[in-house]
Structures are given as structure tokens and as C-alpha cells.
Amino acid sequence: MTDAIGYERIGDIAVLKAQNPPVNALGYDVRVGLMEGIARAEDEGAKAVLIYGEGNTYFAGADIREFGQPPKSPGLPEVCDRIEASPLLVVSSMHGTALGGGLEVALSTHYRIAVPTARVGLPEVLLGILPGAGGTQRLPRVAGVEAALDLITTGRHIRADEALKLGIIDRIEDGAPREIGLAYTKELLDQNAPRRPVSEMEAPEPVDFDAVHDSVLKKGRGQISPATAVRAVQAATELPFAEGMKRERELFMELMNTDQRQGLIHAFFSERAVSKLPELKGVEPRRLAAIGVIGGGTMGAGIATAALLSGLTVTLLEMSPEAAEAAKGRIKGNLQGALKRGKIDQANFETLTEKSLTLATDYDALKDADLVIEAVFEEMDVKKKVFTQLDAVCKPGAVLATNTSYLDVNEIAAMTKRPQDVIGLHFFSPAHVMKLLEVVVADETAPDVVATGFALGKRLGKISVRAGVCDGFIGNRILSTYRTAADHMILDGASPYQIDKALEDFGFAMGPFAVADLAGLDIGWAVRKRKRAEGLDPRARDSAYADKLCEDGHFGQKTGKGYYDYAAGPRSRVPNPDVMPLIEAERAEQGITPREFTDEEIVRRYMAAMVNESAKVVGEGIARRPLDVDMTLLFGYGFPRYRGGPLKWADLEGLPGLLDDIRSWAKEDPYFWEPAPLLEKLVAEGRTFDDLNKEAAA
Ligand code: 3HC
Ligand code: NAI
């Protein structure tokens, strides 16, 4: 027997215990262990087999690290068939999560018991594949087609009570999985309960699969695995079980060979690797219980909301009692949303707003705070004053953080006598919803302050990414470049509407002009004014048509008009008829003859600009690894998860071809399209961005 499955005999029952930490993934050793365990139980004359998991969980699924490697027999479908076909009575006892292949193993056993906290699901589509060990054939037979389609196409996890109602589990019992499993198995043996192979159950009733397929495809914004999974479930209704399994396998292998599968698996592992920094190994974060927030506008109120929801106490400092009350109103509004969604109850709501939150206008109120986050106006002078005051009142060791979007954190830190305690914590709007947090490390920031930034991110349920100091850090710096690429295409002949459509078809949640309307066109206007005041490089192309929109008072959704007209509400945008004439006038003024762009060229230029700037950001050490850029774009900028991030996309697309395009465009505009040295180096060495991720992990 392998060590991955323990074997124990209790009377007539052979007990197979999964012991493959941390999540009992069904890797090769576990599969072999299950095959051997079943065979041994049969050879030794046991009457029943109980399968359960040691540690935190039953099997959490196939071992994702094996994907893309040559398959090693026995495969999981074979293991499931072997379990189901055993003449012994086979029972699963589940705790933790029974996900993917884990639930497929459970569905191959004849009876299933679970603890109340157990969760089950088939999340394969979230990894770009579909359940490939009988899940698409067995689940519809057990729970019906409708429930199976829901679970398989969304990948959502359900609680034991819902699983019981759907017939996925037979009983819920509190206790240790081994003990409740043994008692249940004994009971079944005493009752002479029959084996109950799901494959022998009747085929489920069909539904209108074409309609479901099309609607799932549309919802997936270009992601194919959920729609493909619909066809596998369809096979369960149309084909005998063995034929259905064959169809499932074909579709599974098709998906296994897609770039989308690679993108999603990259996202899965990068999401977990992003907060693991070698520099933080063994570094303890500082104490984090009471925090201060300065400025209770859009961001300050959002940050305070997130902090309150995570159980921290918050002192919010504003310029006047009226402004503080207004900030409290915004926080209450945010918390009301959480109340409506059932994340908190009325009693929590009262505690959070009346006990955990304190309003202040005097800096003395911040003297006991463990960490203070400043979210005042984006003006260096204002920020400098705030940090001078914080330095005067905060206790020694308090972390002093700025939420600035672009400003120099070193310059802000220099206002204090404790630059080692100063850090950037760049949240995204709305801060209590968006998952991304850039932890901006300045020249003198102490390691335990960085660790505290990451600890705060974890506590707030954020994906935290380490960034260095530069204009815009990782995300906004890259955004500014790909936005510029879009602006250039507009000058040269594309329309904002064609660009948005092409990029939404590529998978972005929203195109760049719809995003600008949502964020407020005044933000970009302010940045352009600042950059012009600092002095634009004479080689940079500039345009003024967007300023004219702002001068006319059109700031996007909040004023009802921007690139689009929102007269019928924020979700029903139509092009604003004033925009194209402004663009045409600008082209005429600059002497540009507009040309046609294909959607393909739009995507290529936009993505190449994004990749080139990302490579500069990594090359300069602003992001430590390519995956840090990928996670920033995924969690803060609506980048399609199934493409993995811009640098994963670049690897899959081929770096030499991208560099060729960049070089050819550099002939027209050498300033904008200057190739990133890191991209040139990787191409010259025949390596990829993922090679850099692997080197960093080694
Ligand atoms: N294979 C390999 N490693 C896995 C894994 C898996 N299925 N699931 C989790 N891990 C690893 C993680 O990468 C992490 O490793 P690290 O410590 O080196 O970073 C470690 O296990 C712990 O994982 P988490 O940090 O995510 O732990 P949590 O307790 O927060 O979450 C979980 C546990 C809910 C099980 C979560 O890890 C999860 O959702 N895992 C993926 C589950 C899944 O997608 N299963 C389906 C797989 S596909 C399949 O089964 C195909 C089949 O149909 C043929
Ligand atoms: P906002 O204008 O909505 O809020 C700023 C708040 O700060 C106002 O309520 C104001 O009364 C208060 N304030 C100003 N000076 C103060 C002082 N000296 N002391 C106490 N309070 C003071 O601005 P917003 O959008 O919340 O931005 C705040 C910061 O967050 C800026 O640095 C901005 O760049 C950054 N940011 C903004 C994002 C956004 O999408 N709005 C996203 C990420 C960061």
C-alpha cells in the first residue's frame, strides 16, 4: 500500500483513510492507494468499506499540479469505476470540502454521510475543464439535470444541508468523520442495505440543452468550459452510462488542451503564491486591532467599511464634524448593502456603526491606533501635512499608510521621523468590494511593516500584491500605458465604441471607455493636467478632445453623459452623439487621415502595450514577479481570469511575435513603442515570463 491511504479493519468494515495533506488531493499515490485498499478489503473478506479523509478535509479534488503532465494510470475515472463496481458496500464520510474529483469519488461510493459543515461542489469549470471522473454522468442521475447543470456550470460549492435536499448526501451527522462513518456503515450492514451504484440508476430527464448552452456561453464572456460541460450533462440524458462516460472524457480532454485551462490554473496557483514573499519568511506582522482612517470620502468610507466588517475598530478622522457625519452616512450605506446580502445582521450593523466606529476631527484620537490609513485628496501638500501630524501623535511602532494612487510614497515618508513605519496601501474603488490591495513598499519601509500590510490584506479578504514606488505603482502605471494605446487608436481612426466592443469580446468586464465613464472622466482629466504641468515629453502624442467633454461638464455615469449617454440608466449605455464630432475635429486639427482598424488589430495593440509596460514594471523590480502583474490586472482591472493575466497571455501568444509587432510599430512611434529590455532579453534567451515565476518560487 502507498502511504497516501491508510488501511484499518474494524470488524466487517475496512476503513480507508486519505492522508495526503494539505487537502487530500487525488494524486497518483492516492489513486493507487484507493485501488489497493478496495482490493485488499475484498481479498480479506470485509463486508463494507468506509472512505474518509484525515486532517481538514475529505478529497478536495484531483491534484491540479498533475494537469498538463503525461497521465499516470490508474486515472481517476478508473478508480471511481472500481470503487462503484466493488461487491462490498462502500460508504463515504465527508468533512471539509468534497470538491471536483473528491465529490466524484463520493458519488462512486454507494452511500454518503457528512458533517454539517461539509461543503461539496464540482468547481472544475473554474479551472477551465469539466468534471472528468463521471461527475457529469453521475450527478444528474442523483440530483436531476437542473441541479447538476447549476452546480457544474457555476462551480459553486454548496453546504451539506443543500446537498442533502438534492440527494447528493444521504445523512448529516455531527462528529468525527471516522466515527460517524463507522456508525452509519454498521447501521447499513445491520439493515442489509443493498449496494447502490449510481451508474445503474435511470438516465435523467432532458431539458432544452441548446438554450442552456447558449445562455451559459453568453454569461461566460468567452469562457468555454461551462458551455462545454452542458454538452457532457446532455450526454447523460441521451446515452447509456458507459457511452456517456466516453463523451465526458472526450470533452474533458478537449478542454484540457486549451489555453483557457492554462490561464485558469495559472490564476489558481498565482492567487496563492502572490502573498508568499521570501523577504517575509519568518517576519512577524505588528499588532493589528485598532485602525485609523483619515478622510471619509469614497475611498476612506470604503476602507473603513472593509475594516469594520473584518472586526477591527475604526477611528475616522475628517476635516469637520459635518464631513465626519457625511462619512458615517457613506459607511452606513455600504454596511446596509452587507445587511441586505445577509453578510451581517441588524445587531451587527448597530455594533459596527455605533460601537466599533468612532468619528473624530482631532489627531489626538489616533494616538492609540495600530495602523492609520490616509485617504485624503490626491494632493502632495495635503498628504504631507497629514503625515507631519501623524508623526507627532501616533504611538511608536504604529504603521502609517497612504492610499495614494500615484504620488511618491518616499516623499510622503520623508515628512516623518519614522520612514521605516510608512507604507502605501493602495485600495481600489469600491474598497469594501474590490479584491485587490497593492502593498507599496518604499525605500525605507521595514519588513515587519510590509508583513503588517499583507496581514491587513488577508484579514480584509483581499489579494495583496507587493509593489515598488513609481508613478502609478503596478496597476495604474500599466493602465495609463494601455489607455494611451487606445487613445492613439482613436486618433488614428478607431472609435471608442469599436474599441470597447473588441475588448469586451476579448473578455474584459468593460472596455476602457466604459470604465472611464464609470470611474469619472474628471480623474483622467486631472492626471492629464498634472502631467502637462510637469511637462510632457515632446515625443509623446497628446489630444484634447476628452478635455472638451469634461469642460462641458460631462464626467461619465455620475453626470449622465461621457463617452456614452446614460439617460436610460447606468446599464443601458448608448454612444454619446457629441463624442465622434469632437474626435473628428481633433484628427483634422492634427492633420491625421483616419484609417480602418480591425477588432483583431485593436486587441493586439492594446494587449501588446499592456505586456510591454508590464515587462518594464517587472524588469525595474516594481513588481517582483510576472505573476504579481497578472494578479494585479485580474483583481483590480477586470482582466479576464480565463486568460490568466497579461503576462500569461503573452507567454501563450508567443513572446517573439509580440516583440516583432512592437518593433514594427516602434518605426511609426519609437517613443511609445520602445520595447521593454526584459521582453527583448526573454526572447533572445528563448524563455518565458512563467520561467521567471518558476525561478522565483525555487
Ligand atoms: N490540487 C493540488 N493542490 C491543491 C489543490 C488541488 N486540487 N487544492 C488545493 N491545493 C493546494 C493549494 O495550492 C495550497 O498549496 P500551497 O499551500 O502550496 O499554496 C494548499 O493546497 C492549500 O490550499 P488553499 O490555500 O486554497 O487552502 P484553503 O483551505 O483556503 O482552501 C480548498 C481549500 C477549498 C480545497 C481550495 O484549495 C480549493 O478550492 N482547491 C481546489 C479545489 C478544486 O478545484 N478541485 C477540483 C480539482 S479538478 C478535478 O477534480 C478534476 C476531476 O474532475 C477529474
Ligand atoms: P474624496 O474626494 O472622495 O475624499 C477625500 C476625503 O478626504 C473628503 O471627504 C475630504 O473631506 C477628506 N479630507 C481632505 N483633506 C483632509 C484632511 N486634511 N484631513 C481629514 N480629511 C480630509 O477622494 P477619494 O476618491 O476617496 O480619494 C482619496 C484618496 O484615495 C486619494 O489619494 C486618491 O488618489 C486615492 N484613491 C482613489 C481611488 C478612487 O477610485 N476614487 C482609488 C484608489 C485610491
From TrEMBL:
One of its GO terms (molecular function) is (3S)-3-hydroxyacyl-CoA dehydrogenase (NAD+) activity. This is Enoyl-CoA hydratase/isomerase family protein. It comes from Sedimentitalea arenosa. Residues 472-566, 602-687 form the 3-hydroxyacyl-CoA dehydrogenase C-terminal domain. GO terms for biological process: fatty acid beta-oxidation. Residues 291-467 form the 3-hydroxyacyl-CoA dehydrogenase NAD binding domain. It is found in: Peroxisome. It comes from the Bacteria. Keywords: Fatty acid metabolism, Isomerase, Lipid degradation, Lipid metabolism, Lyase, Multifunctional enzyme, NAD, Oxidoreductase, Peroxisome. In the N-terminal section; belongs to the enoyl-CoA hydratase/isomerase family. Belongs to the enoyl-CoA hydratase/isomerase family. PROSITE patterns: ENOYL_COA_HYDRATASE. The keyword Transmembrane helix does not apply.
